[in-house]
Recover the amino acids of this structure.
DNA sequence: AATTAAATCAAACGATTGATTCAATCACTT
DNA sequence: AAGTGATTGAATCAATCGTTTGATTTAATT
């Protein structure tokens, strides 16, 4: 019971690694079952379809991610009476769980980041998954609007979207700039990446408003 | 001769529209030839493979885009003696040609933006295309380093990457925030989007340096 | 008009995809 | 130990993919 993974878990683990490295569309059910050492019927028996495998793989990761983000936001909110949270702290609460923290090893972080990066690079395959983020997005929007009361609803939405863009490209691996960064500095330092991203985004949020 | 498009152009036009709306991986050669009203062998006769169709479609768009960007950067550089370019101006020179300007109609802008958005959402399919941007990237990096001399090479690279992220998400259509933006404000105003993106990114570039 | 090259055509290739079938096997209760 | 429902195995389904073929038509050259 303890040492032997059940079929469902074996499928999820294999699918996650393959989705993370090759992407979803490029991963066939047959490569999954080969890696999981499982029969192809097991996938349809336990999940019903490839789409539901995708959903299950992402849900398994998104649930704890949402928890982490909410915990950090909660901590800032309960502290708010004595010391109001800064924009940087809220942005950090949003980015840290996905970019650096809450991982037991380098390998696991690579895998999670690789997986999440495909949320942006294969929108069609994961469109049905994005809703799992909705509630958390709302809460972070609210927290930001509290300490940036001069920003209109539209201002906030746009800047929030830009933040997602920065986060998204930070998780990508094979873009031109990312490649060059690896050439110049070797391995990516995710602690540094996190700080830089938070810094960049915070400046964007705190920029004065304009009339558009 | 004047009214009749040749086969090569018909293929490119059909492929561009399909890539733009459905993505590259989701577009089969058969849907292309159906739209172009052309025989399937014509694709391999004129291009050799699907990969080269992709290359040709993107090259046709990237070449004038690079020109536009360089023209604008050139204009700022020749003016530099009397008035040094601002960060906002350089960022605008980078973003305007792809987000708003240099399009003869809404339809054409939609199509171009849709096409370019897949440069970020289907990296595997277009990896061989990204090199076409390399030289222009270098020049903009240089221009930015001149007016932001306190930024290290690494600082610049990271922030440049973040800019690409903001640009990328701005071209996306089906992300959570983008959807909400359409709900709230109806049609996307690309002039406003451009100004907001430039504003956000400029703040990020001009943020003080940190020790990481 | 004869020859050659470029371009297009219908048809089919082998490979791969997600999904399904149904018999064999397993784990568990009685 | 028998029986029962949950699970897995091997084989196959129809559909679609990018690519190739060889014949045929069109255009250019001599």
């Amino acid at each position: 019971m303890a040492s032997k993974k059940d079929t469902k878990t074996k499928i999820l683990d294999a699918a996650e690694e393959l989705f993370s490295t090759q992407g979803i569309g490029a991963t066939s059910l047959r490569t999954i079952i080969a890696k999981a050492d499982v029969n192809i019927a097991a996938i349809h028996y336990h999940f019903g379809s490839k789409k539901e495998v995708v959903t299950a793989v992402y849900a398994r990761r998104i649930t704890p991610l949402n928890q982490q983000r909410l915990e950090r936001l909660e901590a800032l909110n309960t502290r708010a009476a004595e010391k109001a949270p800064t924009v940087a702290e809220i942005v950090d609460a949003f980015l840290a769980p996905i970019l650096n923290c809450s991982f037991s090893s380098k390998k696991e972080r690579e895998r999670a980041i690789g997986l999440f990066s495909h949320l942006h690079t294969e929108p069609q395959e994961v469109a049905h998954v994005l809703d799992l983020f909705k509630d958390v997005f709302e809460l972070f929007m609210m927290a930001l609007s509290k300490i940036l009361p001069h920003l209109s609803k539209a201002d906030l939405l746009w800047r929030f979207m830009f933040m997602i863009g920065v986060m998204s490209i930070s998780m990508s691996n094979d873009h031109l700039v990312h490649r060059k960064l690896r050439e110049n500095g070797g391995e990516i330092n995710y602690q540094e990446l996190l700080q830089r991203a938070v810094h960049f985004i915070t400046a964007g949020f705190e920029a004065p408003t304009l009339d558009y």
User: Anything to note?
Assistant: Chain A touches chain B through 55 residues (CB under 8 Å). Residues 28-30, 40-41, 43-44, 49-50 of chain A lie near DNA strand C (CB under 10 Å from a C1').
